[in-house]
Amino acid sequence: MANIHRPPTHFRSRTPLVLALGLAFQNGWAQNAGSETQLAPVLVLGRATPVATAAGWGDLPLSLAPLQASVFGAEQLKDRGVQRLSDITSFDAAVSDAYNTEGYWDYLTVRGFVIDNRFNYRRDGLPINAETSIPLDNKAQIEVLKGTSGLQAGTSAPGGLVNYVVKRPLADPLRRASLEWREAGSVTASVDLSQRFGAADAFGVRVNAAASHLEPKVREATGRRSLLAVAGDWRVSDDTLIEAEFETSRRSQPSVPGFSLLGDGVPAPVDPRLNLNNQAWAQPVVLDGDTASLRWRQKLADGWQFTAHAGTQRLRSDDRIAFPFGCFDPDPAPDGTYYADRYCPNGNFDLYDFRSENERRRTDALDLSLQGKLRTGAIEHALSAGVLQSRVRNRFGSQTFAFSGTGNVDGSVRDLPANPVPNDENTNRDERSTELSLRDAITIDERSTLWLGLRHTRLHRESVRTDGSRPTNYAQSFTTPFVAASYAFAPQQFVYASWSRGIESEVVPNRSRYVNAGQPLPALKSRQAELGLKGSSDLTEWSAALFDIRRPLFNDIGSCDVDDSCIRQANGEQHHRGIEANLATRLDAWTLRFGAQWLRARVQGVSDAAVDGKEPTNVPARTLKLQADYRVAALPGLSLQGGVLAESRRMVLPDNGSQIPGYARADLGARYEQRVGTSNVVWRAGVENLADRRTWRESPYQFGHAYLFPLAARTLRLSVQADL
Fold first, then answer.
1. Which of these, 178, 460, 532, 698, could form a disulfide with 97 (CB 3.0-4.6 Å)?
2. CA-CA distances (angstroms) from residue 111 to 26, 146, 462, 580, 658?
3. CB of 255 within 8 A of CB of 324?
4. Residues 277 and 254 sit within 8 Å (Cβ to Cβ)
5. Which residues have CB under 8 Å from 62's CB, separation 6+?
6. Which of 16-20, 394-398, 550-554, 608-612 is least confident?
7. Inter-CA distances, 549 with 6, 346, 621, 709, Å
8. pLDDT, tens digit, 9 for 90 and up, residues 480-492
9. How do beta strands 400-408 and 448-465 pair?
10. 671 CB-side CA count, 13 A
11. Beta-carbon neighbour count of residue 159 at 10 Å?
12. 82: CB partners within 8 A, 6+ apart
């Protein structure tokens, strides 16, 4: 996209040093004019700070943007042993876990809100469904935009937006091979190849391929995955660029269910290697994905640019697990006790055979945009306008959720019978939307900029059960604005204030117990106000933000146990106020990166007195994340790495009747780069959870059930990467 804003001349750094902004503040990748240059670890020489393209303000560096975001580059992810999206929770204090387990897709919480896997994810800016495993081998960077995302997405949960940026052909040839081993016996082999050819190197191709044998320290979770991705471009002329790419991936691995409360108590942390999905008939979760896109960039007169970008994503899933859920305890006699949202005091649980096979999800999108600049008197406008059309089609079959027997949290019950016969219907969904967007960055003078954005969405959604029952059909239109003002009060330092709105759309389930069954609800209008500071010097870069997010809630009012016994309606809000602070600094051979978040999150104004005024579940109030790199002068090319993550307590139940304690975790790593003949070789090693700490990592309340997930056991990793 066009560069919409540059810092005033007298505020541009006269030094060649700019630290990469983002809570991890580590090395990244920069892509300019078709080239991708590996940056030195942590320190970025002679470049602007990274660009978060998901923000929608063109190639504006993060250091100049009136928002908070993090950018994680491919090399940074490799240095820290990142294998999946949820691993970035080690870097960013605003990002934490939200039901993350081995063998399933990833969930993230940003600023205390669980972001929606259906609506809060992008791939090169186009909407995708993240109810799958998304490989990172062919991704140049991961961007996390923090705050409401109504300007970037038609409908989305508040808190944040994730954008995957695909690797593209480089200006120079690349021949890279990598091999990684991870305890207990996972092995991944991958290649990354790039080549230009034709007259004046007009054509480029980038190939990424990977294959893994998955054998984590968690028992009964052996699996495999594979990826093949090809990206190509054609520089038709100096003004025209055509880019195409596709990827196909597969992951097959048994998933690991959560533990839970035992009666009214939080149990002692368990062995993290234990897998309750250990029945002989348990089958793996299979996640297949095919994604492709085509993009045409055309430079126009007077610095304007037109972009047409189309993409499609087709997912197929087999979701299967021996699933613990609730418990019936015969004590006290004669009627016993049913624990609907936890396990029995003695560790027993009801085990269900869950199978939902041949799930198919398809997302298609077309984005047309125009960017450029114009001047009205002394005021410069950096404008962009666009239209995004998308279609979603999700198709499912009948599913199984059948009682199999009683298990126990010690994993000793392994001979329960399978019960695979389908006994329940699923819900098919269709969606069509058209989104019109307009942005204007108004440079008033060398110090002051006004940022205005607007997105108008027209939405149509349908759903029906797989047996044809309970149909719903509704349409809505809404507008989500963004406004911000920034002021540079000193060289390389500025303050900004912003206000934005996000939208979520919901329909009442078409079930007989609801008085308003099948009716669309008023759009949920979340709002965020943010006040931020950003600054940098030769060796230090920092940012801080004070934010306030309000998200309305819909709840069921009434008994909901017979026909026409309840109504779903607006009922209170979730209110999050917080402070986020980031710092990166270079001290001789040391590079330190620090991030912290303090969050006051409350559910307020709801009719349930037991929940009103309480903290939401699985949200730590205080988070600290520190990373350090030390360059060993005695051995050039060697750097030692360390990281510390610390979080405060998390609530387990909505009424705050139970909680898990806070914890801290330390990681260590090393990176050694050397020349071997004509090859550049990078050796990496690391150990996660160095002290082998046993604790509960998170406490999601999901599917009407309280879950507990343990911190992963100490894990060693080794890898080698060679550029041939």
1. 698
2. 21, 7, 31, 9, 22
3. no
4. yes
5. 21, 22, 49, 50, 51, 52, 69, 71
6. 16-20
7. 30, 41, 15, 27
8. 999 999 999 998 8
9. unpaired
10. 22
11. 29
12. 72, 76, 88, 136
Contact 20, 584 (CB under 8 A): yes
Mean pLDDT of 155-163: 94
Arithmetic mean of pLDDT, 226-236: 98
Q: Three-class SS string for 89-157?
A: HHCCCCEEECCCCCCCCCCEEECCEECCCCCCEEECCEECCCCCCCCCCCEEEEEEEECCCCCCCCCCC
Contact between residue 620 and residue 599 where contact means Cβ atoms under 8 Å apart: yes
Distance CA 188, CA 133 (A): 16
Query: Would you call 85 helix, strand, or coil by DSSP?
Result: helix
pTM score of the predicted model: 0.92
C-alpha of 649 from chain center = 22
Report how many helices (DSSP H) and strands (DSSP E) the chain contains, helices first.
Answer: 1, 43
| Helix, strand or coil, per DSSP, at residue 301 | helix
State the residue for tokens 């699933």. Answer: 323
31/281 Cα distance (integer angstroms)? 48
Rounded distance, CA 378 to CA 461, Å?
46
pLDDT digits (tens, 9 = 90+) for 393-438: 999 999 999 999 999 999 999 999 999 999 999 999 999 999 999 9
Specify the residue for token string 């940022």.
451
CB count within 10 Å of CB 462 equals 15
pLDDT surpasses 60 at 16: no
* pLDDT at site 58: 82
Q: What's the rounded Cα separation, in Å, for the pair 141 and 21? A: 13
d(Cα 242, Cα 203) in Å, to the nearest integer? 10
Give me the pLDDT at residue 559, please. 85
**Which candidate, 166, 167, 168, 160, places its Cα nearest to that of 55?**
160
How many Å apart are CA 466 and CA 137, to the nearest integer?
Answer: 36
Q: Which distant-in-sequence residues (6+ apart) come within 8 Å of 704 by Cβ?
A: 340, 341
Whether 464 and 427 have beta carbons less than 8 Å apart is answered as yes
Q: Which of 275, 267, 290, 374 is nearest to 322 (CA)?
A: 275
